[in-house]
Structure formats: C-alpha cells, structure tokens
Amino acid sequence: MAATPMLPPNLAPGNANFDGNAAAAPPTPGTDMTGICFRDQLWLNTYPLDRNLVFDYFALSPFYDYTCNNEQLRMRSIHPLDISHLSKMTGIEFMVSEVMEPHLFVMRKQKRDGPEKVTPMLTYYVLDGSIYQGPQLCNVFAARVGRALYHISKAFTTAASKLEKIGYVDSENEGVSLEPKAAKESIDFKEVKRVDHILASLQRKLPPAPQPPPFPEGYAPPTTTEGEQAPEAEQADPKLPLVDPILDQGPSKRLKYT
Prior knowledge:
The chain is of the alpha+beta class.
C-alpha cells in the first residue's frame, strides 16, 4: 500500500509560520497570491538574512514550489542556487536576481528549457523579512489606468459642481443688478430745466450779432431762372445775403494800361 505524501513542515495545518488561517489549505504556487504576506519572526531571530540563507527562508513560504529544480539540488545536498547544476537541468527553478543585504532580495521564478534559454514566470521579493509576490505588468497597468480614470472623473465632477454654483450666483446677481441700472439710465428733468435756464440767462447777457457788411459797388448777385432755383434758396431767410460778402467780393477790377 502506497504511503500518503506528507506536506512540507511549513505548510502543515496548524503551523504558526504560515500567515493566515492555520486550517486553510495554501494556494497553489504560481497563482495570484499578491494579497498574501509571509513572515517567520522566529527564523529571523535565529538566522541572519543574507544571500546564502535567503533561499532557505523563502522555501518556508507558501510561494515556494517543491517541484522545482532547486529542491532536487537540496535533496542531493547541493546548494539550491548553484548555477552550474541548474543550467544542466530543465523545468521550474528559482533564482536570486537582485540583492540589497539585508533589506531587499528579489526572487525570480522561471522555466528553463536549456542552458541559455529561460522564460520568466513570476517575481517575489523579500523586504525586511516579509515575503511578497510581485504583481504582473498587466495588473500594474490596469491599476494605474483605473486610478487615473478615478482622479479624472473626480476632477470633472468637482469642476461641474463649481460651474453650477457660479452660474447660480450669476443669475442671482443679474436679477439684483437690473434695478440699479434702470435707475442710472433714468433722466432727471429738474437738472435738464436747470441747465436750460442757465443757457437762456447767458444768451440774454451776450450782445446781439453784428450786421453783415453791404455788397461792394458794381456787384450784382447771380440770378437764376424760376425753374432752376435751389431748394436751399427757397428755405433761406430773405433778410440774409445769398453769398458771403467777405469771401466773395465780386469781379476783380483789372487795370488797363494805355
């Protein structure tokens, strides 16, 4: 009778190393586990977190895949990050891509198809002893676009509400300001009569206009036929001369030399 395979110690139910419900089964490695954070404070108090031991610490988390090539090397008592052995194997493997001891370690899960052919799959990072799964690029773009759309929609809503308030205030101001404008445009007849009285008194104080000088001797104003008289001549005052005696002095007198 075949024996039932046992779960790793860190994934066994009731283990305090797992962050979450103790009785709940851990999610399958490779799925979306961005909402999970793993931290083993007891291990951190016992061992230093450096590039040589970070993989052992990562293997305690639910993000670790026990079918990877690194686990096969561990069973053979070989360092799980030995690239000389990993490059000769095919399948799923974990590699440490970036290190900033002792705060940040970036783990990359990839599929190896040959010594120089690998396909990245997922990224994990250890930040000050806490292990997280890095989001995929499509999720990052979706989150950024969603956040930008939220702020744009909020800005348009705020601008629309302010424009409505401005239009409401302008309509109130227009109704209030109609009466003062009408009052300003009204005419004060008392002031008009007062100005007319002042002009009439000034006109009485001025001397009468002088009479125009007479026509020079020998000058006869031009005569026109009855049909050719201009309408201005009919309406003109008969007492006033038809031509200006100062500008038009009649025909010039020529001196005759003998």
